């Protein structure tokens, strides 16, 4: 267990290495913990992969792989699959050229100061913020909760941190139905993530080098922050709605450290 070298990064940008690492961990580690995937879990997995194939702003090789996994999953007729069969499709790059999900984890913006901090959970949040923003920018008349619904199902069926999944499901049950547009979906995820940050500030899971803040900080987005008549902090929602697509948009994602 040699310590990985620290990778310098720009903390106000999103890295494709984090997104691909999150995909790798989710599909090859977290889902792999279920030797047989059936019923609700299979429905969750199908929706999750469908959303990835549609909105993940990935490299062509990765998109080819996600589309092939999506096609395979959608063509499964029964109400259960073996993980081993899915694994065969995930690792099919030997058979199909230009199709691969890179193996292994290369955390960049999601590096932690200790091996047990940040990494995958950070990658999951980043991935889902990106997906809500890409859905929103793709226009069309799709279901405004397409990405959120897929995320909710994935977390409920597979996310390894079970108490996190419970907390998230409670928040979803409380207010996700109120989301009526795709930009509102990105805003819902932003505000729920801040609720989680607030709850976890100062907890043991917090990386001391990456304190939980109400995000984005005033340095990152000055115009997102205002004060009300009583001098209390208030978000400028309109400015936040402009900031989210600029921060998480596909065109702003950095490709440093990709193999
Ligand atoms: P993270 O909170 O993981 O954020 C990742 C990155 O997203 C940040 O670096 C920042 O760039 C950006 N970001 C931060 N806030 C926002 C925001 N509001 N909107 C948009 N982008 C933002 N841990 C627990 O201990 N208990 C829990 O109950 C729990 N529930 C979780 C539920 C879910 C669905 C997920 C995905 C994770 C949960 N976690 C929970 C893990 C926890 O939220 C963090 O992911 C983990 O502690 C790592 O924190 P981090 O510092 O890397 O930042």
From TrEMBL:
Subcellular location: Secreted
Biological function: Catalyzes the oxidation of sulfhydryl groups in peptide and protein thiols to disulfides with the reduction of oxygen to hydrogen peroxide. Plays a role in disulfide bond formation in a variety of extracellular proteins. In fibroblasts, required for normal incorporation of laminin into the extracellular matrix, and thereby for normal cell-cell adhesion and cell migration.
Stretches assigned to the ERV/ALR sulfhydryl oxidase domain: 113-215
Superkingdom to which the source organism belongs: Eukaryota
Family: Belongs to the quiescin-sulfhydryl oxidase (QSOX) family.
Organism per entry: Betta splendens
Protein name as it appears in the record: Sulfhydryl oxidase
